[in-house]
Design goal:
By secondary structure, the protein is α+β, with helices and mostly antiparallel strands. The strands form two sheets. A nine-stranded antiparallel beta sheet has the order 3-4-5-6-10-9-8-7-11. The protein has a two-stranded antiparallel ribbon with strand order 1-2. A hairpin with a 2-residue loop joins strand 7 and strand 8. It is globular, with a radius of gyration of 18 Å. The chain starts with a helix and ends in a 6-residue tail after the last strand.
């Protein structure tokens, strides 16, 4: 797919209340996602800030882990989190990138169809890069996740009325698997089905019985 095909919708739409709903051009968004997802992990906070500089983004004056990108969303639209790697160092565990501006509650009906088209365009573009992702629904919110060979994962979803991408590091995914296995073993010992307490309503659309 070409960038022109992926971006075949308006990136700025003036809504009836006068507000402007913005969508990050798919080509630019995918390039940013790939820059973080395909980084040779592990990533230190200093390396994350260096990548920020290479992308031409700026940090918040009060929190260097929160960024304003050059994607014209007119808000802090990217951030990373860290976890302790050992006693004296931390490593980047995840990265978050907004792909649209927030939908004003007063004009939800106007903006939601635009957000849905943006979501579909990003899914199509990332599928062309990473192959078929895993679709799931959590509390009515559809998301698609790609597991990369590096054990990094990329997730596209709609949270808080914003279409966004979340990238989890191999270390965070390994920790999540260990936690899930631990609780599954406890549930098995007590003959109780394991339920992910963070996502109790999560359903794998492609494998509803899993």
């Amino acid at each position: 797919m070409t960038d022109d095909t992926a971006d075949a919708f308006q990136h700025r739409t003036v809504l009836s209340d006068g507000s402007v709903y913005r969508v990050v051009p798919v080509g630019a968004g995918v390039r940013a996602i790939r820059a973080w997802a395909e980084y040779p992990w592990p990533m230190s906070p200093a390396q994350a800030l260096a990548l920020r500089d290479r992308l031409g983004w700026t940090s918040s004056p009060t929190d260097e882990e929160m960024f304003t990108t050059d994607h014209d969303l007119e808000e802090k639209d990217a951030s990373f989190n860290t976890i302790e790697a050992d006693r004296d160092t931390r490593t980047v565990s995840s990265f978050h990138l907004s792909l649209t501006s927030r939908i004003p509650k007063e004009v939800m009906d106007e903006a939601v169809p635009i957000a849905e088209r943006a979501f579909d365009a990003y899914v199509e573009a990332l599928t062309a890069v990473y192959g078929q992702g895993k679709r799931s629904r959590n509390r009515g919110v559809l998301s698609v996740t790609w597991a990369l060979p590096s054990d990094t994962s990329v997730d596209i979803g709609t949270v808080g009325r914003v279409v966004s991408a979340d990238i989890d590091s191999p270390a965070l995914n390994e920790a999540a698997r260990g936690e899930a296995q631990y609780f599954a073993e406890i549930a098995d010992e007590n003959d109780v089905p394991y339920i992910d307490i963070d996502n109790p309503d999560s359903i794998d659309i492609d494998n509803p019985d899993s």
